[in-house]
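agent> Task received from the user: take the single chain below, predict its 3D structure, and emit C-alpha cells. No templates, no multimer pairing.
agent> Plan: (1) validate residues, (2) run structure prediction, (3) serialize to C-alpha cells, (4) report one or two observations.
agent> Step 1 OK, no nonstandard residues flagged.
tool_call: predict_structure(input=
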Amino acid sequence: MVDTPLSKYLSSSAEKFPDKEAVTNGKSSLTYRELLGRSNYLARCLTDKGLNIGNYVVISMTRRINIIESIFGVLKAGGVYIPMAPDIPGLRRKLIFNNCRPSAIICDNPVLKKLLSENEEIIKECSIFCYENQDRIDNAIRNKISLIDAKSFIDQENNFVMRSRITPDMPAGVYYTSGTTGEPKGVILTHRNIHEYISWVIDYIGIKPNDRLLWTAHYYFDMSLFDIYAPLRAGATICMADEKQLLFPKLLVDFAEAQQVTVWKGVSSLLMYMARTGAIAPGRLRTLRKVIFSGEVLPTKYLRQWMQTFPDKIFINAYGPTEATGISMYYKVDSMPASSEEKIPLGKPCENTEIFLLDDKLSPVLDGEIGEIFIKGICVAPGYLNNPEQTRKFFIDNPLNPGKGETVYRTGDLARRRPDGNYEFLGRKDDQVKYMGYRIELQDIEQALISLPYVNDAAVILTEMNKLPELQAFIDVAKHGITTHQVSQDLNQLLPGYMIPHRIHFVDRIPRTASGKIDRQALQVLTQSKTKT
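)
tool_result: status=success, residues=533
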C-alpha cells in the first residue's frame, strides 16, 4: 500500500488499533479496521472509473459518518477532495463546479436528486458515486450512477496500490469560502499544510488514543480539519453530533455525556447559544477536559458563564483563517475575566507561524497601534483554485523581506499587539466604518451591547437612510419590557456618543452564516424592510 501523506494517519492507527472505535454518531460506528477497508474500497472504485492523480472530487452529502471514509477514499486514490454543503443553493453549486471541474462526485440520494434537477450536465462529465440502496435510484439513471452499498465493502482491502506517490506539497483539499466579489473562492490546502497544523495541534492540545473528540463543525468548513484529522492521527475516537443535536443544545450535551467526550473544538456562536439556553449546568460534561472556541468572537459574558459553570476545564481561544489552514494564534484563558467588558485576546502565534501587523502602506505598526494581520508560515495555503487575480491580491510577497520568495497572507482582520505580546482582535478591515469623521470598529459596539445583562446577541451595521449614513443595531433581548431608550442610555455608560446607534431594532435572532459569523448582508435587507414598516 502506498499512502498519501494524510491517509497514512488512518493506515497507521488501523495497524495499532484495528478493533478500536474510530468514528461514531451514537447509532452506528466504524472501527479503524472497518474505516480503512471502506476507504480503500472507495479508492479502488474511484481509480477504476478513471480518477487520476490530482483530479478533483466533490463530496456532498447529509451529515453521516460516511463523510470520513469518502475523504480518505479520495486521498488514497490520489485525488483532491472538495467538501460541499448538501443544501447549497443551485447557483453557488454551479459556480463551484465551473471553478473546479470535478472528475467525480460522491453524494447521497438527497443530494443526487438536486444534482439531477439543477446540474444535469454534470452527469455527462463526472463519475457519480451515491450512498444509497439501489431500489431508491430511478431506473433511468441507475446505469450512470455507481452505488456505494455498505455490504459491498471489502473489510481488508489492503492490496490497493496507488500508481504514483503523492508529494507533501500537492493539494489535498479545497475549501470554498465567501468572496468579496460575490463568487466563492476555493482555498487550496496541501498535504503539508494540513499535516503541519495537525502535528502542532495534537502536541499542544495533548490528544491521546484514549481521547474522544466531539465533532460539531460542518465538514465543508476548515474547522472540521481538527475534528477529522487530529483524532484519526492520534488513534482517538470521533464522536459526530447529528443535525438535530446541533440545533438543540441540551441534546448536544446529552450526546457529549453519553459518548464521554474529552475534547471539543466548537464554533463560538454554538458555545454562546448553549450558555444562553441553559444547556450547560454544574455537574454535567464531567469527562470534558478542554474546550477550544473559534470562528468568531465569543462574547466575554458567555465565556465567564462557561468558566463559572466548569471551573475545572481548560478553555482556549483560537484564531485562524481558512487560508492559513487551521489555528494561527491561540490563547489559554488561565483565569476568569474580571468583567463582561474585558476582551479575550487572540494570543500568540503557533509554532512555525509568524504574525505581524501592517498599516495601509504595508509598514509595521507599533505595539498598541491598529494594523492588519498578516500571516507567514508553513500552514499558509498556496492560493485560490483557478483564481490568479484573488491569489495575487491576498497572497503577496513578504513586504518585510521582499524578493526572497516568501509569501504572506493578508487576512483583512484588524488587531493590536498588547504589551504582554498577545494580539487583540479588533474586527474586520471591511467592517471598519467611517462615521461622523470617526473610524469605528462595528465589533466594539456589538461587544458593548452584548455585555449588557439583558442582551443575548447583537449586530451593528452602517447603512444609508435618506442619503445619510446611520449606525443601526439589532439586538436579541433576554426579557420583555426593555426599551430602545434604556439600551441607548446604558450604552452611553460604555461608549462615546458618536458610537451610539441611531436606530435599535429588536429581533428574535441575529442572522448568521453556516460558519457562525454575522450575516451583515441579511441585516442590510432587514434594515430596508423595517424602515418601510
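agent> Step 4: summary for the user.
The longest helix spans residues 32-48.
agent> Done.
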